[in-house]
Amino acid sequence: MADNASSRVDTPTNISLSAAVADSLEYKTVSVFLVLLVCSVGIVGNVMVVLVVLTARHMRTPTNCYLVSLAIADLTVLVAAGLPNVSDSLTGTWVFGHAGCLGITYLQYLGINVSSCSITAFTVERYIAICHPMKAQTVCTVSRAKRIIAGVWLATCVYCMLWFFLVDIQVKEDGHVLCGYKVKRELYLPIYLIDFAIFYVVPLLLAIVLYGLIARILYLRCSPATLVHREERGPGSPVAPVPLQVTKMLAVVVILFALLWMPYRTLVLINSFVSAPYLDDWFILFCRTCIYANSAINPVIYNAMSQRFRSAFRGLYRCRRLDAHQRTLSVVQAGFGTMREPRGGKNRETQVILKKRS
């Protein structure tokens, strides 16, 4: 019993590589249903975000470039963490081998960390765009956003290579295979704390400060004194438009990121210091579902709060339906032409014979 508890302590508490999987049919049914539902919605939604930004020219803005980076990171989390969780729930053992253990763990943390960095990037971009509109004309550009995104992905790819040296296949006494840490708890504890600080605490603190400054600027622009000053300048005086709708939408994304990641981050932080970690299967399932929901809910927010995204999603759907209709029409026309061809050929032969006789 003591050995089992020790193995649970030294096993990573990340989002898909749990130490124990409940064998009850109820747990497996609920787990598989929730994960498949959330991951399916998230994969479809994030793919649509990438497609509408890449195919619609008017959607290629600096903010949307960061949202594409966030969508790709969320797709990585859903595919590398959510889908393997289904096999974990069904079989109760790791089925992807040593290479899968290394690769899937790497992709999990890559998606998680890039997601956090993308949120930080568009938060800074919103701050510059609203609080420093003159500077934003040269700083907040699509080309600069692409360079920042490339740098974020490159730096995070290098940072996450650390996980290649921390995880390995473990075989328990009952024959179950786990993908877990091959180092002691004391060695991976600093890594968890560094991840917690860099990719959760710092982005949230920065977001709180920057959105507080944004709210102050928006309040001052809408204050009675500012409105009177604009009236004194006359109706023709230029007033810089404030993209309030986009700012509200991104603020909601940040808030949900903080709330949905809080259960898992809190669990890891507490388990890092207590002697007997809390590893209840149902609570771990709740934490995982919150993480998958965070990666799946962003396209829903865009559709609900952004008129431009909503129109782009509808346009993408109509284009797909139009393409399918055109392909069907082409097939029908081709088949109809093939059916008429022999008759046309026979008529031409008859005309040639009649001409020769005449």
TrEMBL record:
PROSITE patterns the UniProt entry points to: G_PROTEIN_RECEP_F1_1 (PS00237), G_PROTEIN_RECEP_F1_2 (PS50262)
UniProt KW Transmembrane keyword: yes
Single GO MF descriptor: thyrotropin-releasing hormone receptor activity
Sorted UniProt keywords: G-protein coupled receptor, Membrane, Receptor, Transducer, Transmembrane, Transmembrane helix
Domain G-protein coupled receptors family 1 profile stretches: 45-302
Main location: membrane
InterPro entries per the UniProt record, alphabetical: GPCR_Rhodpsn, GPCR_Rhodpsn_7TM, TRH_rcpt_1
Keyword Protein biosynthesis: no
One Pfam family cited in the UniProt record for this chain: 7tm_1
Any one GO CC term of the record: membrane
Subcellular location: Membrane
Transmembrane segments: 32-54, 66-86, 106-128, 148-167, 187-219, 240-262, 282-304
GO biological process: phospholipase C-activating G protein-coupled receptor signaling pathway
Gene3D superfamilies, per database record: Rhodopsin 7-helix transmembrane proteins
CDD domains per the UniProt record, alphabetical: 7tmA_TRH-R
Family: Belongs to the G-protein coupled receptor 1 family.
Function description: Receptor for thyrotropin-releasing hormone (TRH). Upon ligand binding, this G-protein-coupled receptor triggers activation of the phosphatidylinositol (IP3)-calcium-protein kinase C (PKC) pathway.
Protein's UniProt name: Thyrotropin-releasing hormone receptor
Organism: Salarias fasciatus
